[in-house]
Structure formats: structure tokens, C-alpha cells
Specification:
Largest sheet: 7 strands, mixed
Shape: globular
Distance between the termini: 4 Å
Number of helices: 6
Helix content: 25-40%
Strand order of the largest sheet: 2-1-3-4-12-11-10
CATH superfamily: Class I glutamine amidotransferase (GATase) domain
Oligomer: single chain
Length: about 190
């Protein structure tokens, strides 16, 4: 059984923990470098990316988190996590880790009132899973090192590069565990 962590500085981390436990994993909330050192995989949840950037610096997690991911530990990055994982961010530009060879535009699927649920397009590598978009980033460019796993309305919404799976939507807010199982397997 894998001991996984969910970055718990801000945002929707509790729902991710519930999904991981449903797959049989043990889960810890990660707020410190010591917390991070105790887990073998990590979820970067949705939330507000500029707030996450401030808190990562405040709690001294920027360098340890970067080292954790670059060491090859599995990571699931959703919504805000996708933004933090991207090679570059536009609308507006901001700092990111660069783990996934994509460019993203913040909140580009629309404001909160434009939230929607849709299935992955037919032909997506993960099947027709339900996807919930809430102030979601849009993947505006996919580089050669990133693999598109799912599209919605013809646009890439779930990608993988190495051990990082990153999505524009919130899989933790549906009952479907496909995306979590893809990133971490079963416990």
C-alpha cells in the first residue's frame, strides 16, 4: 500500500485524500518539508495558483517540492496543480515549476459561473470519464515531451510527462477514480 500525500496549503485537498483512500492508499496532508519526505507520491490540488506560490515560498516548500518531483515520484496535478506544473503560464504570466511541457492560460475555460461537467472526448486514452471544470486553466500548447491522455471539446485537458499526470479539471469532485488510479495505481 502506497503512502501518498496531498499538498494541503490551500484549495480542495480533502476530496483528493478521499479518492486516494478509496483506492486503498494511506494518505497524509503535506504542509512541511518533513511531511513531504514521508510520502511516496503527491497530489497538487486545485485552488488559487498565486496563493499557492506565496505559501510554497512562505513554508519553504519550493525547492523540496521541485526535488521530490524531479526525483521521479508520482504526482497528480489538477487545475491549479496543472498551472504550477506547466512549462509556462500566460493570462497573466506567473512562475511555475516546468515539470510538464505545456503552456497554460489561467481561468481560460471561464469564470466560476461558467463551470461545467463533460465527459472526455471519444478516443481519449482514459475513456469517457466525467470531468468537472471550475475556473479551469486551458492547455494552449503541448510540447513534444508531454503526452495528451484526454481531450474535451477537442482540446487537451489531461497530459502526462514522466511520472506527472496533470489535468485542467477536478477528478476528485466526481465518483470516478480513473485519473487517481492512472497516477498512482491501486493501494
Amino acid at each position: 500500500m502506497a503512502h501518498l500525500g496531498v499538498l494541503a496549503l490551500q484549495g480542495g485537498y480533502a476530496a483528493h485524500a478521499k479518492s486516494l483512500r478509496a483506492l486503498g492508499h494511506t494518505v497524509s496532508e503535506v504542509r512541511t518539508e518533513a511531511d513531504l519526505a514521508s510520502v511516496r507520491g503527491l497530489v497538487l490540488p486545485g485552488g488559487e495558483s498565486t496563493t499557492h506560490l506565496i505559501l510554497l515560498e512562505r513554508f519553504g516548500l519550493w525547492a523540496p517540492l521541485d526535488a521530490f518531483v524531479r526525483a521521479g515520484n508520482p504526482v497528480l496535478a489538477t487545475c491549479c496543480g496543472l498551472i504550477l506544473s506547466a512549462r509556462s503560464v500566460v493570462s497573466p504570466p506567473q512562475r511555475s515549476f516546468g515539470w510538464v511541457d505545456v503552456q497554460v492560460a489561467r481561468n481560460a475555460w471561464g469564470r466560476q459561473v461558467h463551470s461545467f461537467e463533460a465527459p472526455a472526448d471519444p478516443g481519449s486514452k482514459i475513456g469517457p470519464v466525467p470531468m468537472l471544470f471550475i475556473r479551469a486553466p486551458r492547455i494552449v500548447e503541448v510540447g513534444a515531451r508531454a503526452e495528451v491522455l484526454a481531450t474535451c471539446q477537442g482540446e487537451p485537458v489531461l497530459v502526462r510527462q514522466g511520472m506527472v499526470v496533470a489535468g485542467a479539471f477536478h477528478p476528485e469532485l466526481t465518483a470516478d477514480l480513473t485519473v487517481h488510479a492512472l497516477a498512482f495505481g491501486h493501494g
